[in-house]
Design a protein that fits this description.
By secondary structure, the protein is α/β, with parallel strands linked by helices. It contains 13 helices and 8 strands.
Length: 293
């Protein structure tokens, strides 16, 4: 089962409200999820928007907002929802195209989209405003990650090792020690997980422009690890072939393999090699302000 789009929550919302009850918005969302989306996986239920809201909750909330503007539900008081007579007599299916004939929703839609052309060929956008924001952020994020990976492939190999060690430190794995470049024995850095250095992680960083990490690279890395650790992280700007991954999985040591895509994802998450250019604020009505009257 896929996470529903916001317009696919119209009927479930009205079905939950059809008995005329006045529900808190939070109660409505929970009942809709329980009655109609119980087949969603735990991972899907925990999926978030870019603003940190639960995606399924956000979709239901936007469905509620559109139904209210279409006259199908009303907000009798702050934080509560109730169906209208129009909502009780709704058709078997309701789409954004159906609702755009409502003058109230059409005005709402024009404000969001700038202009709306209504004819038999035009299909209304079925993404909620939050979905559109997330889509834009995802596109920017993908472009930044692609540029970041390309940059990593062109920097000095020794500096790439520093980048990897700085990332792991930023992730909270402790202070690192760079090994001698002239004779590192296949080890580019050592991280002490504790202050006394009793628990160590060995690091191998390979900046590849072409080709994949092979089984022999993993084997050499394992061979270079001394007996005072059983943990290693192998990082590359490229990919690992299947034999290399199998060697890492079957090793007596705990070997973590981080390919180029995973590397730039972590760098993006922990702000290593990137900076925040612009911050956008999303504002909403302050209901408490108006409750003072």
């Amino acid at each position: 089962m896929e996470i529903p789009k916001f317009d696919e929550t119209f009927i479930p919302i009205l079905e939950v409200l059809k008995d005329g009850r006045v529900l808190r918005s939070r109660e409505l969302i929970e009942e809709v999820k329980t009655k109609f989306y119980s087949d969603l996986t735990e991972e899907q239920l925990k999926q978030e928007t870019k603003s940190g809201d639960l995606l399924i909750d956000n979709r239901i909330a936007w469905g509620k907002s559109y139904l209210k503007k279409g006259g199908y539900i009303t907000f009798p008081q702050r934080g509560f929802v109730q169906i209208t007579e129009k909502g009780k007599n709704h058709s078997a299916t309701i789409t954004v195209r159906d609702l755009e004939n409502e003058s109230s929703l059409f005005d709402f839609y024009k404000q969001e989209k700038g202009s709306v052309t209504v004819d038999n060929k035009t299909q209304p956008e079925i993404s909620s405003p939050q979905d559109l924001i997330d889509e834009g952020f995802n596109r920017i994020e993908s472009e930044v990650k692609a540029d970041l990976l390309q940059k990593l492939k062109t920097i000095d190999p020794y500096f790439f090792e520093k980048v990897v060690l700085r990332l792991l430190k930023k992730m909270g794995y402790g202070e690192f020690i760079e090994t001698s470049k002239s004779n590192d024995g296949g080890i580019d850095g050592i991280i002490n997980e504790d202050k006394l250095g009793l628990d160590k992680i060995y690091i191998q960083a390979k900046r590849f422009n072409e080709g994949k990490v092979r089984e022999k690279d993993i084997r050499n890395f394992i061979g270079a690890m001394s007996g005072d650790t059983n943990k290693g992280v192998f990082v590359t700007t490229s990919e690992f072939d299947e034999k290399a991954l199998e060697k890492a999985r079957s090793a007596h040591h705990k070997i973590i393999c981080i390919d180029g895509q995973k590397l730039v994802t972590l760098m993006h998450e922990f702000n290593v090699g990137i900076q925040v250019r612009t911050t956008y604020e999303i504002k909403q009505i302050d209901e408490d302000f108006f409750d003072e009257q």
